[in-house]
Amino acid sequence: MAQEMIGSIKYEEEFIVNPRGLKLFTCRWVPANEEPKALVFICHGIQLINTGTRLAKAGYGVYGIDYEGHGKSSGLLGYVPSFDDLVNDCSDHFTSICEKKENRRKLRFLLGESMGGAVVLLLHRKKPDYWDGAILVAPMCKIADDVKPPRLVVSVLTVLSKIIPTWKIVPTSDIIDFAFKEPAKREEIRSNPYCYKGRPRLKTGYELLNVSLDIEKNLHQVSLPFIIVHGGDDKVTDPSVSKALYETASSSDKTFKLYPGMWHALTSGEPIENIDIVFSDINDWLKERTELRSSSRLEREQKGDNDIQFSMSTGKKVVTL
Question: Where in this chain does the record put each Serine aminopeptidase S33 domain (predicted)?
Fold first, then answer.
């Protein structure tokens, strides 16, 4: 396991092996001198970025994973043969961290950016009561019309994806140009050897389109607490569908923040003053729910401990509701 110190943050990375025998890159950022107040699990979009450092500085233990075919993980770069496998890899890794003895009583939050927003919603669907909340950053609930091929082209590509799944022939605009407002950030992404560039591979495009259609049809199933942050000028994922998620979800605790003039990459591609605004809103949301839910959970656990002690002293069976 490789590790380094980033100021007051301890950063570690290691490779794990998934059930299909692929090596997946994982990493974590944790406060070096204090116990994390809660756990945050990042489901990335184009890449793992500085979100981990920002949240760790605010006192959270933050964990990330590169999907198959992304970043430093094994697999053909930019190739997603099965979105279900991708979700299962995240679920297995994140759950294993949550179930460690030192983490069992910690709150657990998911954070998904872009495609990672779709991953978060499917992780929630897989275990509806497991996660304490979600932060959705420009989530892929629907692919914006500006970057989606025409319907006839989609039909043709659906057939071809079964014949030549890895080919890069999905006709779409360069997402980097649409996602990152700051030119310097675009160049940084393009020069990163671990970041996929070019047209989407056929099977990848097919999987992303199907997942976005499925999520769009089932927004009402979302029941966990969440905050959505979305740029008003996002041309990669559709902010109107984020609004629909906010309005349709059955969650009783839900927040929607729309930032006029901001683009898709809210946490890395905007001017620093805009990025600060977005992280301020995310941190405020996390802080409020962490303090409230930690207090509630502690009360429940203390009540449970007291009930157990009382039952042992009296010999009576106590059922705590």
Answer: 35-267
